[in-house]
Write a structure and sequence with these properties.
Blueprint (H helix, E strand, L loop, with lengths): L1 E9 L7 H11 L4 E6 L5 H13 L4 E5 L34 E6 L4 E3 L6 H12 L3 E2 L13 E4 H17 L1 H8 L5 H12 L15 E3 L8 H12 L2 H5 L2 H9 L2 H9 L3 H15 L1
Parallel strand pairs: 1-2, 1-4, 2-3
Antiparallel strand pairs: 4-7, 5-8, 6-7
Length: 281
């Protein structure tokens, strides 16, 4: 049995981040495995970038295209930030992860860095501390978990898989229940409350970043984006893990440079400029 799968669900133009996400995980944790579930097909250049990663970094990943593509109409109006499709990452059934001991569901627009203790180890410790087979955090003054969700596969799915299968088999019921929600994390809170409960989660708040969230600087003019990126990079948790040096190593890697040519993104480029700035100080 493989120890850990890092998984994401993606749709639309966000497929452009798949090569970056896979690259960063496998450079940081060569023994991890990555599964990207995509509603939409990747572009030819994105697939070229994946082949480059497979040949030059690691083959420990797969991309499943067309996943739940006909399950729900993502164009239907809803209040949910990012569209109703964002909830599908929390409805991936046991069958997809049965060969793994642990799963970490993340955001596609992240660059993951190596930490000490490792991603797996810190979440295992937190899960044990709060007494449930997952690790997450309830956002302050809300009924929302975070979208970064770690769990122990067998123990988690014993309680959650019947709930997941129910919604997958009844999409109209799912849509009726979530159409008024603003965040997909509200839906995760709801199904966790129904299936497992929260244990001592409120006594032990734990939300490690594990890397750089590219989307943090997506909105605003250049000055605002710069402030947001610099504030994120200056988090003590990341500084202690050597975030600047690790990201700098990514940007200086010929493989990463080729990925940037094959799957260009203005926020990836902007981050690279900020890393150069920090390295020059």
């Amino acid at each position: 049995m493989k120890k850990i799968c890092v998984a994401v669900y993606v749709f639309g133009s966000y497929t452009r981040y798949a090569p970056y996400y896979i690259y960063s995980i496998l450079k940081s944790y060569p023994d991890y495995y990555v599964k990207v579930f995509s509603k939409d097909p990747l572009t030819a250049n994105e697939n070229k970038a994946l082949e480059l990663i497979r040949n030059e970094v690691s083959p420990n990943f797969e991309v499943v295209e067309g996943y739940l593509d006909d399950y729900i109409n993502l164009d239907d109006p809803s209040k949910m930030v990012g569209s109703i499709g964002t909830i599908l990452r929390f409805l991936i059934p046991y069958e997809e992860f049965k060969d793994f001991e642990y799963v970490y569901i993340g955001d596609i627009d992240f660059l993951i860095i190596r930490e000490k203790p490792t991603l797996v180890d810190v979440h295992k410790k937190h899960s044990k501390k709060i007494g449930v087979p997952y690790s997450n955090a309830i956002r302050p003054d809300s009924k929302r978990l975070t979208g970064l969700h770690f769990f122990k596969v067998k123990d988690y799915y014993k309680k959650m898989n019947p709930i997941i299968e129910y919604y997958l088999e009844n999409p109209s019921i799912l849509y009726d229940e979530v159409r008024a929600l603003r965040y997909d994390e509200e839906f995760l809170y709801k199904i966790i409350e129904k299936g497992i409960g929260f244990g001592k989660i409120e006594e032990h708040f734990f939300r490690p970043p594990h890397g750089f969230h590219i989307g943090v600087g997506r909105q605003g003019d250049n000055n605002e984006r710069l402030r947001k990126m610099d504030r994120y990079l200056n988090q003590k948790k990341l500084i202690r893990q050597g975030v600047i040096d690790q990201l700098d190593a990514f940007y200086n890697d010929p493989v990463f440079k080729k990925i940037m040519l094959l799957s260009p993104d203005k926020d990836i480029k902007f981050l690279g400029e900020r890393i150069k700035h920090f390295k020059s100080l």
